[in-house]
């Protein structure tokens, strides 16, 4: 996450697909793999990204996983001043004429640590949801998935995509820092939006707390909102961390510092920090919310 910065005062194989679906006529009911399988596959994706030598290798792994799941990724190159970047975008499901739900996360990391929490965790969530929507498409939306490059350099990959002005989504859903905790933290400009209500219901059903509102650290969703393209973002953290994170990004002190501020952008951002069981619950909750939102679309 671009602005989940540590304050200066702090110490600076073949993967099995997680989900199986069966289609029962006429109800199209889905049968999902156990939570333990979702957790295991999500964790394996985070591990592979964290173990990658650099950001190019992280993208190569994502490209491989998308292709193995039947989604052919395309490369979107861009340049900003002296920097060159590469986004990955793939069609997931849905007819061409339907409004677009775009889900995404940044795949790049900073040099310190391994970028497991920031943001292999969010990339693995976007990948898991893409697989689910590929196997069981939404009723009213087509879906694409994107993995942005150079978020850590100023949201550059998402901004480059938006600047092209192509294929404006009905909604962009971002995932950044989704590594542990009991609370979905949802950034939404509109507290009364249908997806907020659906997320509250889904979070409760899956044993999670939820915090929804405008106060949230900068991430790729801002590139969309700046262009007046609808966007939200989700993180998964501890409930007690959220007010302290908000205090820090508002320029106020807090003691103790929230866990996430101690981990990201530091040597501690490693696989040992993540909680796969918690992430699996979060994935289930967000999927349920998006399906409920889609079902209400007219």
Q: Quote the CATH topology.
A: Aminopeptidase
What is the spatial order of strands in the main beta sheet?
A: 1-2-4-3-5-8-6-7
Query: What is the N-to-C succession of helices and strands?
Result: HHEEEHEHEEHEHEHHH
N/C terminus separation: 33 Å
Radius of gyration: 18 Å
Which architecture does the CATH hierarchy give at level 2?
3-Layer(aba) Sandwich
Q: So, the CATH homologous superfamily?
A: Zn peptidases
Residue runs with pLDDT of under 50 for 5 or more positions: 4-31
Q: Assign a percent range to the helix content.
A: 25-40%
Overall, the morphology is globular
Q: How many individual domains?
A: 1
Say how many strands there are.
Answer: 8
Question: Please, how many helices?
Answer: 9
What's the CATH C level?
Alpha Beta
Summary tags:
298 residues, alpha/beta, Aminopeptidase, 38% helix
Describe the model.
With 298 residues, the protein is α/β, with parallel strands linked by helices. The protein has one domain (35-295): Aminopeptidase (3-Layer(aba) Sandwich). It is built from 9 helices and 8 strands. The protein has an 8-stranded mixed beta sheet with strand order 1-2-4-3-5-8-6-7, sandwiched between helices. The model is unreliable at 4-31 (pLDDT under 50).
Write the layout of secondary structure elements.
Layout: H1 35-51, H2 55-68, E1 73-80, E2 83-93, E3 100-106, H3 116-135, E4 142-148, H4 156-164, E5 171-178, E6 183-187, H5 194-205, E7 209-213, H6 221-226, E8 231-237, H7 241-249, H8 259-263, H9 276-295
Parallel strand pairs: 3-4, 3-5, 5-8, 6-7
Antiparallel strand pairs: 1-2, 2-4, 6-8
Helix pairs in contact: 1-3, 1-9, 5-9
């Amino acid at each position: 996450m671009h602005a989940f910065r540590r304050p200066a005062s702090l110490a600076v194989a073949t993967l099995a697909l997680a989900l199986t679906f069966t289609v029962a006529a006429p109800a199209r009911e889905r049968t999902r793999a156990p939570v333990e399988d979702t957790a295991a596959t999500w964790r394996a994706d985070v591990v592979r990204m964290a173990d990658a030598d650099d950001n190019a290798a992280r993208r190569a792994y994502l490209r491989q996983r998308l292709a193995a799941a039947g989604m052919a990724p395309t490369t979107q190159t861009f340049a900003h001043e002296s920097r060159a970047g590469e986004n990955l975008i793939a069609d997931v499901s849905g007819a061409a004429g339907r409004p677009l739900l775009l889900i995404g996360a940044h795949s790049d990391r900073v040099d310190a640590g391994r970028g497991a929490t920031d943001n292999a965790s969010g990339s693995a969530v976007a990948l898991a949801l893409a697989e689910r929507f590929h196997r069981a498409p939404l009723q009213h939306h087509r879906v694409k998935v994107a993995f942005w490059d150079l978020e850590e350099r100023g949201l550059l990959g998402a901004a480059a995509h938006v600047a092209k002005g192509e294929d404006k989504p009905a909604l962009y859903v971002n995932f950044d820092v989704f590594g542990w905790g009991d609370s979905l933290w949802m950034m939404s400009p509109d507290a009364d939006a249908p997806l907020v209500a659906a997320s509250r219901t889904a979070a409760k059903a899956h044993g999670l707390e939820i915090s929804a509102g405008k106060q949230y650290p900068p991430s790729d969703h801002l590139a969309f909102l700046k262009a007046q393209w609808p966007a939200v973002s989700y993180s998964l953290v501890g409930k007690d961390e959220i007010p302290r994170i908000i205090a820090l990004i508002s320029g106020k002190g807090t003691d103790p510092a929230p866990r996430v501020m101690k981990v990201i952008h530091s040597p501690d951002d490693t696989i040992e920090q993540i909680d796969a069981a918690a992430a699996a619950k979060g994935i289930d909750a967000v999927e349920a919310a998006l399906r409920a939102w889609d079902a209400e679309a007219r």
